[in-house]
Amino acid sequence: MERRKYLFKGRVQGVGFRFRCFSIANELKLTGFVKNEYDGSVSMEVQGKGMIIERMIEKLYQQPFIEIEQIHYHLLSIKENEKSFEIRY
C-alpha cells in the first residue's frame, strides 16, 4: 500500500480529466482526491497498491481529449481512514 501525489501538465483541464480520474479510481478501488490547480495543471493524491495505481495512470494516458505532457509524483504518508476518492474544487 502506498500513497502518491501526482502533478499532471498538458491538456488536463476542461477535458473531463478529473471525472476520468474519479471514475477510474472508483473502478480500481483506490482512494484519494483530484483537483485543478490555478496554473492549468491538475494534482492528485491517490492511495492503494502500487501496481493498481500504475494501472490507473496507464488508463489516463488512453483517454480521449486528454494529453498528458508531463507527470511528476512523489510518495506521501498513508492516510489510514480514507475510504473514497473525490473531486475537490
UniProtKB/TrEMBL annotation:
* Active site per the UniProt annotation: 18, 36
User: Known EC number(s)?
Assistant: 3.6.1.7
InterPro entries this protein is in? Acylphosphatase, Acylphosphatase-like_dom, Acylphosphatase-like_dom_sf, Acylphosphatase_CS
Entry keyword set: Hydrolase
Q: Where is the signal peptide?
A: none
- Does the record's keyword annotation contain Hydrolase? yes
Q: Which Pfam families match?
A: Acylphosphatase
> Molecular function (GO) terms listed?
acylphosphatase activity
Q: Give every Acylphosphatase-like domain span.
A: 3-89
Fetch the PROSITE patterns from UniProt. ACYLPHOSPHATASE_2 (PS00151), ACYLPHOSPHATASE_3 (PS51160)
> Which reactions are catalysed by this chain?
an acyl phosphate + H2O = a carboxylate + phosphate + H(+)
Q: Which family is it part of?
A: Belongs to the acylphosphatase family.
Q: What is the protein named?
A: acylphosphatase
Query: What organism, scientifically named, is this protein from?
Result: Faecalibacillus intestinalis
